[in-house]
Each structure stands twice: as structure tokens, then as C-alpha cells.
Amino acid sequence: MSLTLYSHPFSSYCQKVLVALYENDVEFEYRTLEDPAAMVEARRALDLAYGWLEQRLEGRTWAAGENLSLADCAAAPTLFYDEARPSRHYFPLGAPDRD
């Protein structure tokens, strides 16, 4: 399986991933999100991942088990910032004057 990193050069999160990939000598393709074609590919990959997740979580309230867990906490930041997803309304902004 080949690994593709869709990244933005100013993203500190992406820089952390790059450090780990280089440090562990992992082969990967770097695609900058400043390229419109990369944006289309990244959206397609994200839609595929969300489709898998929706199917996996169907009929469940929480990601792992019957109660809130670290799995839910780990997913929350990604879901919070993905404004294009239908689930965005579950994560309202806490401080509109600062968010």
C-alpha cells in the first residue's frame, strides 16, 4: 500500500507527520493542498474514509463501547474542523468571537 500525505506547508500538524515519516524512513508521496488536483484527490480520499467510518459506526452512539471513550475524544478535533461534513452541527463553536 502506498502512502500519500496531503499537506499544507504552513500546517504544524502536517510538519509533525513529515518529521515522523522521515525519521522512520517511510516511503510516501507528498502532495501539497495548494494544488487544485491534490485537493480533489484529498477530498475523494476523505469521503472514502468517512464512508467507511459511517458504515462502521451505524447504530452506535460512541466509537468504542457503550460510553464516551478516548476514541471519541481523539475523533472530535477532526470532526470539529471538517465544516464540509454533515456531522459539523454536532460540534458547535464555543466562542464565535474567537473561533
Outline the fold blueprint.
Elements: E1 4-7, H1 12-23, E2 29-32, H2 36-57, H3 70-81
Parallel strand pairs: 1-2
Order of SSEs: EHEHH
Structural class: mainly alpha
Low-confidence stretches: none
Query: What is the CATH domain class of the largest domain?
Result: Alpha Beta
Q: What's the rounded overall pLDDT mean?
A: 83
Tally of contiguous helical segments = 3
Short description:
This protein has three helices and two strands, in the order E-H-E-H-H. It has helices at 12-23, 36-57, 70-81, and strands at residues 4-7, 29-32.
Describe the structure.
The protein is mainly alpha-helical and 99 residues long. The chain folds into two domains: 59 residues, Glutaredoxin (3-Layer(aba) Sandwich); 38 residues, no CATH class. The longest helix has 22 residues. The chain is globular, with a radius of gyration of 16 Å. The model has no long low-confidence stretch (mean pLDDT 83).
Core attributes:
99 residues, mainly alpha, Glutaredoxin, two-stranded parallel ribbon, 46% helix, globular
